Amino acid sequence: MKSEKATFTGAGGDALAARLESPAGEIRAYALFAHCFTCSKDVFAASRIAAALASNGIATLRFDFTGLGASGGDFANTDFSSNVGDLVAAADWLRAEHAAPSILIGHSLGGAAVLAAADSVGEAAGVATIGAPSDPAHVSHLFGEDIETIERDGEADVRIAGRPFRIRKQFLDDIAGQRLRDRVSALDKALLVMHAPLDRTVGIDNAAEIFQAAKHPKSFVSLDSADHLLTKREDAVYAADVVAAWASRFLPPAREPAASPEADAVVVAENGIGPFGQDIAAGDHRLSADEPASIGGLDRGLTPYQLLSSALGTCTTMTLRMYAERKKWPLERASVTVRQKKIHASDCAECETREGRIDSFEREIELAGPLDEEQRHKLLEIADKCPVHRTLHGEVRVTTKIRAVS
């Protein structure tokens, strides 16, 4: 996946910060994502959905609404209508710079916003909502007792999720005047409603009202025990995969990938998802790498050492298979478990290095089939002859140069 920063002008004339995530290969279509109330484009649910869509050939633009995240403007001057205006502006930017969005996706109040903006984005074939309220006025419960102050003084500082936000009376007046269910009823697009039955922020009855107001084609997917913000990784991944699968029904089929101009090269690039997220392209194949959450990553893919261990393991089983086939031995299946760790050089009697720490790969091979002991012993010897094993034991030279960026 490729990730790039972008900036466009919002409905109020302020510069809005955005990020466009695109698949490494052909782009089948574009999607536009709207985040939850007072959140930012970088919440995990947004980044995970963008990654899942990219793996299905869909590029996704996510951005910070006016006054939030890295975007300019004053949040106090915004309301639901201005959020809808920002969404339309984002769609206009996509249309001018790339292509109009085919899919609109919104989380929480962002879900209500994409429903309201849908009729202004004629090219969109489908709208997906996650934990969306059926009435934008639902968010007023977050203001609690401050509503009286807002009504009396015209504004008040309200704490939402531990952060202060200035809310003005124009916001309350604007959400009170919305007729979202009328817009849903007139929606001429496919609709996917996703909601958690135990959502304590936006109750499940909101999903029922949206679903009942909409005409077919429409779908509902339960997010089971997920919380409103999809803070559990498995919940965000599930929602992302469902959205990606659903969206694929309304898009042109992906073309067969063209041959890579560098079939013998492996290209690794940062994808912007978390501090360590990487996309790997090898010929026409794609996979991801990351670091575990314990050291600051998002655990979206294999670590570098897991990739290295995978290379040793796969090379081992392939070498065993080729040898057994040539000898016509009854090897039914070979599997290898590889464990990598750092050990003290002084603990390795056969190692040339005597000081510091060295890398140790422990390889455990399982051979299934009616092999005799002599055949098993020979295959154990052959395992040490796999090319990656020889590379790890041989002299290795790595040359590095800077490639000019156009």
What does this structure look like?
The chain is α/β, with parallel strands linked by helices and 406 residues long. About 1% of the residues have low confidence. The chain contains eleven helices and 15 strands. The protein is 32% helix and 25% strand.
Q: Short description, anyone?
A:
Helices cover 32% and strands 25% of the residues. It contains 11 helices and 15 strands.
Whole-angstrom Rg: 27 Å
Secondary-structure class: alpha/beta
The CATH architecture of the largest domain would be 3-Layer(aba) Sandwich
Number of helices: 11
Low-confidence stretches: 256-260
- What characteristic shape results from the CA principal axes? elongated
- Reported by name, the CATH topology of the largest domain is Rossmann fold
- Beta strand count: 15
The CATH class label of the largest domain is Alpha Beta
Considering the protein shown, what is the CATH homologous superfamily of the largest domain?
Alpha/Beta hydrolase fold, catalytic domain
Percentage of residues in DSSP E strands:
15-25%
Quickly count the domains. 3
- What is the terminal separation in angstroms? 19 Å
Main sheet specs: 8 strands, mixed
